Amino acid sequence: MQIAIATNTLAGSGKAVKLAAAIQEILQKKQIISQIFTEKEWDKSIYDFDQIWITGGDGTLNYFINQFHDIKKPLCIFKGGTGNDFHALLYGKTETHSQIEHILHSVPKPIDAGLCNERYFLNGVGIGFEGAVARSLQGVNKWGGKTSFMLSILKHILFYKEQEYIVASAEKTVEGKMLMISIANGTRYGGGFYVAPLAKPDDGLFDANLVKPLTPLKRLRYLPVIEKGKHLGLSIVDYYNTTAITVKSKQLIQSHLDGEYLESNELKITMLPGHFNFIF
Question: Which of 76, 83, 176, 196 is spaced 20 to 30 A from 60 at the CA atom?
Answer without folding.
Answer: 196
